[in-house]
Amino acid sequence: xxxxxxxxxxxxxxxxxxxxxRTDLDQTKGLVWAINEECLPNFLTPRNCPRVCxxxxxNTSEADKxxxxxxxxxxxxxxxxxxxxxxxxxxxxYLYEFNTWEFTLLDENAGYxxxxxxxxxxxxxxxxxxxxxxxxxxxxxxxxxxLWDLHAEIQKTTLNWSKCRMGFAQKMELGGIKMEFKKxxxxxxxxxxxxxxxxANFGKEVPVFAHQFLKRADEIKNHTETEIALYExxxxxxxxxxxxxxxxxxxxxxxxxxxxxELIEITHDYMTVRGKISEITDLHSKLSIWGEQQGYKRNLExxxxxxxxxxxxxxxxxxxxxxxxx
Length: 326
Description:
alpha+beta, six-stranded antiparallel beta barrel, elongated
């Protein structure tokens, strides 16, 4: 087995362990990262080039082979956006090879190995032509306009896959419209009513309950016109029932809360996106994918929040807030 570190820098003499940016790893322990030879093609691109890579694994189905490869003789694909083609033409990479004995396997699927020791390379290989380097390894380079659909789709297959630098990818699109994802710290003050039931019935029950609540809107002093809903997150597949609130955002302090209602104040870190109410399922899905790529960890102990915004002469919009750990 060979292990490499890929860089655009030509003169690295040694590698010091660095604190990982991934939040699922120990943030007090520095690491040196390496990639095995099998998954090396995932890194034969410019450093910040977003890409989705996949290849045939031991459990890959025949159906996935037929669907995701253009040739039976080429079982490995590296997909990049069109705009990075010219950058690749003008990029030189250097492969720094390591002794393997101080490295341990972190992720077999992605080919990642790590060491907590300072590493001195035993070899350096210069690659002037990235396209030639890929083609010699029998890799198909696929050019796409937007990587996000492939990114979501490939995770549902039996293929071995990896994604990298998706934070530099073109924005996700939904219905031909580019979506803007953000991390925000937001305070919500609302008056609402609580209910609960099966998650499977939320789609029908929540709008009915909200309609009943809005009949009492005049009882709420200082309320705005912004409707809001809070949802208990579904934590596991066995988590069948949950609670939710429907309410109105209020502006300023309240001296009196109507009977059967609650004053709720929440301040939290969220990842958020806004779009058409008819596309709410896709908005939730794509926001979760984006957050995963950014390394955000969902906080399943805090409510998911949605605010609703009527648009004159157009479809109502929803703004989604998924709570995350700071």
